Structure formats: C-alpha cells, structure tokens
UniProtKB/TrEMBL annotation:
Keywords: Membrane, Signal, Transmembrane, Transmembrane helix. Residues 30-120, 141-213, 220-310, 327-384 form the Ig-like domain. GO terms for biological process: interleukin-15-mediated signaling pathway; positive regulation of ERK1 and ERK2 cascade; T cell activation. This is Lymphocyte activation gene 3 protein. Residues 266-289 are annotated as: Disordered. The chain crosses the membrane at residues 418-438. Pfam families: V-set.
Length: 474
C-alpha cells in the first residue's frame, strides 16, 4: 500500500508537482462512505476520472466520452459505487460507496486527467469500524461479547466504549489486540441497549454502534423489588418473562430463614394462585385478599433454554391499628417493613350525595388522634406512605366501623352489669332463705328436750288453725 502511494506520489510530483498526502475517512460498516477528491484545475474539456483501490485495482472509471467502467472485483457490487456527475462542474469527483464492508477498507487513489499532461492524484485511506454482538439476543446470566474492529487498524488509535450514550466501565476488563477491542460480560439488564465504539486519532473521530437485547424476567426488573399492599386488598406478585420466551418448570417459593437451610422450599400461602388467563410468558401469582401474615420474601424461578432464571421480591403489608382512649382513638399506620418508607401522611376522604370523592390532607406522621363523637371524624381515613421515588401505597380505615365497635362494647358492658345485678339479687334471696331455715332449725333444737311441751304447742297450733277455718266459713 505504501509502495503504491509512493509511486503515485512520484508520478504526481513529476507531472504536476503535487505532494502525496493521504486523507483519512472513517466509516461505520453498513453506512455510506464518501471518499473526497477535489481538483482545482479547471479545464474546458471533459476530464477522465479513475478510482483505484490499492489491493484490487480499478474501482470505477469514466472516459472523456462519458463511458463508465467498473473494475472486475466490483462488477457484482457495481451498484454500491457511484461518482455523481452533477458535482463535476465544481471540480468534485468524490466517490460514494454504499453499504461499506470490512473488505472495502484500504488505500484508494483518485486520478483526474484533464489533458495536456494536467493530471492530479488524490490519496484516500478508508477505515471501516464495525461493532458486533454475540449473541445479539442474550439470555439473562449467559456469556455475551461485544467486539469493535477497525479495518485497517491505525496504530496509536484510541477506542472508547459507550453504552446508551454513557461511558461504559467493564467489570471484567476489556481485551485489546491490533484492530480489535472486546468486552466480555455476563448478560444482565445493565448490558442491554446500544453499544457504541468511538475510534479517535489525530483529531479525527469515527464511531459504530450495535444493539444488545437481554431477555429474561422483565417484571420485576431487579431482585428484591418491594411490592406494597394493604390488609384485605388484592395483590399480584409479578413474574413476567420477555416476549417470545416460554419458560418451563416455573416454581414459586416463599423465602424464610428456615427455607434457606432446607432443600425443599416453603410453598406459597393458600390464598395465592396463578391465573390461567395470563399469556405463556406471564407467570405472576395473585391473592384476592392478603393478610398481614403473608408479608415476606418470595422468589419466582423458571428455565429458558436450559438456563435457570430467578427473580426475588418482598411483599410488604400495611394496616391501621386503632388504640382507644376515653374520648378519642389513636390510629397507627403499621407496615411489615418500614426500611423503604421516608414519610407518612393522613388524608380524610369523604363522599357527597353524588358520590364525588374529596380528600383533605390532615397531618403528617405515623399516628393520628381523632374524636369518637365528633361529626368531623366520620368518614374514611387514609394513611399514605412515601419512599425516595414517591408514593409507595396507602391503607384506609372507616371511622363508623370503629364507632360501631365502641357502641357494641358499651352494650355488652350494660348487659354484663344487668346480669351481675340479677345474680346479686338471687344470692341475697338465697341468703335470706338460708337464714330463715337456720332460725327454724335453732327453734326446733330448743323444743326437742321437752316432748310434752312440744305436744302442747302442736295442739295449740292445730286448734288455732281449726278456729281460723271455722271463722272463715262463717
């Protein structure tokens, strides 16, 4: 290549006194490359233009009579090469190569012959930058490599990697060799997107890009995702695979301290079940009514192309705990895990006759004290909790249900008081009967030592009863 440049330079120097200067062009594989060739010599006759590639000979040629020719190695791809005639009047004889390939890289010469020994040569070196990803669609956890190649390589050139327009720093390091820079990583969501290789030298810069798609469990997108739900509400634990994937042997398990030590995982709570209406890639489970005891960590796992994919998540349950005082009730917003909560606030929700909802922020904080008897306390109270990214969820409490429970307790208390009073009366009556029986028993003990006196007493008593009977009859 350098020898041909030298020969062309010598010829040009002899014929026109020009020097051999090589223009550099960087082009991305698959794009259009424009090789510049501008001649300052103006001629009244139509010039002859010849483009030559150092390794393959003539690329394209135009005679003075207007006939065009393509070199033998370019005949099959002649449609990729053209030199716009509309620019000739301006002295621009640049060559356009469409859909450039690696093999198109190299040294080109543009010769313009205007006659009368007026010949100019322009030298252009075309370098092709190509980014290739293997595989282009990677499964989560599998090995993936991204390669940037420059053909021909320029000694001293720098290579910088960008991912989604941001500088990329490899966790495992980048392998560099002459003409190539290779990044090898384990496929994760962090690697998905557009990879760009930026090649620079001598103030020039060229770039090429390629896309990498990582398939796996797309929802939730990361492990340890927190899912919030209120006691008694419906909740869904997501496990959605990438479109086109059909996972097999999908299992759900509840992670506890005990299950991590056992080979057999804990099963899901009975309230959770998969939905048959979901598409094949959606393996989510849901519960129509979740309880506070369902809080904890869960994991979804499934096999895709013999690659086991897993995603863990944490279910956090919220509830409102009331504590009653004499004239008020204190409501406490309680969550099974508060590590992600940064703020609480309380909102009173009311509805007018038309069912229109209105919400008024009352106060911030985990607890709220409201009056039992105040009309303003009636309605629905909502505790909202927030994290760094915004609102996480909410849980509600009905004041009238609380008042009903309080009234029920008062009624039960009244019933208990009446029962105690009745039992006390019966106990008093029983004591009086026992006292009377004791008196009769003592009286009999005093009479028993005198049988004749007892006979007289009974006789007198009987006669008294007879007289009373006759008196009644009269």
């Amino acid at each position: 290549m350098m020898l041909q440049c030298f020969l062309f330079g010598v010829i040009s120097f002899i014929m026109t006194g020009a020097r051999c200067e090589v223009a550099e062009v960087l082009a991305e594989a698959g794009s259009q490359a424009v090789l510049p060739c501008k001649c300052s010599i103006l001629s009244t006759v139509s010039p002859a233009i010849t483009w030559i590639k150092a390794s393959t000979g003539t690329v394209w040629r135009k005679e003075r009579n207007g006939l065009q020719f393509w070199g033998s190695s370019w005949l099959q791809t002649g449609s990729r090469v053209r030199c716009p005639h509309s620019q000739f009047e301006r002295g621009d004889y640049s060559l356009q190569i469409n859909s450039v390939r690696d093999e198109d890289g190299g040294l080109y010469t543009c010769r313009v012959d205007c006659g009368k020994q007026q010949v100019t040569d322009t030298f252009v070196r075309l370098r092709i930058i190509k980014v290739s990803v293997s595989p282009a669609v990677a499964i989560w956890g599998s090995s993936v490599s991204v390669t940037c190649s420059v053909t021909p390589w320029r000694t001293g050139a720098s290579v910088q990697w960008k991912l989604n327009d941001s500088p990329f720093v490899s966790l495992t390091g980048t392998t560099k060799s002459e003409g190539q820079s290779v990044v090898k990583e384990k496929a994760t969501d962090r690697l998905a997107g557009t990879w760009t290789c930026v090649v620079g030298y001598a103030g020039k810069e060229g770039r090429a890009s390629a896309a990498l798609s990582v398939q796996g469990i797309i929802q939730p997108s990361t492990d340890n995702t927190q899912v919030y739900a209120a006691v008694g509400s419906a909740v869904t634990l997501p496990c959605v695979f990438s479109s086109g994937l059909t996972p097999v042997n999908v299992v759900w398990e509840r992670l506890t301290a005990e299950s991590l030590l056992k080979s057999t995982p804990d099963h899901l709570p009975p309230s959770f079940s998969p939905s048959s209406a979901h598409p094949p890639m959606d393996k989510s489970v849901s519960s129509k009514e979740v309880g506070f005891e369902d809080a904890g960590r869960y994991r979804c796992a499934g096999s895709v192309d013999k690659q086991m994919l897993t995603r863990s998540m944490q279910l956090i349950i919220a509830k409102i705990v009331p504590s009653k005082k004499r004239d008020s009730v204190v409501l406490t917003c309680q969550l099974s895990d508060t590590s992600g909560v940064t703020k609480y606030d309380w909102v009173q929700v009311t509805y007018d006759l038309n069912g229109t909802e209105s919400a008024v922020l009352v106060q911030e904080g985990m607890t709220l004290s409201i009056s039992k008897v105040s009309e303003q306390s009636r309605g629905e109270w909502m505790c909202r909790f927030y994290g760094k990214q915004g609102i996480l969820g909410n849980v509600t409490y009905q004041v009238h249900s609380m008042a009903g429970l309080s009234g029920q307790k008062s009624t039960d208390h009244s019933r208990n008081t009446a029962t105690i009073a009745g039992l006390s009366f019966l106990l008093l009556l029983l004591l009086l009967i026992l006292a009377q029986m004791y008196k009769n028993h003592q009286r009999r003990k005093r009479i028993l030592p005198y049988p004749a006196l007892e006979t007289i007493v009974h006789t007198i008593s009987n006669e008294r009863e007879e007289r009373e009977k006759h008196r009644v009859k009269k």
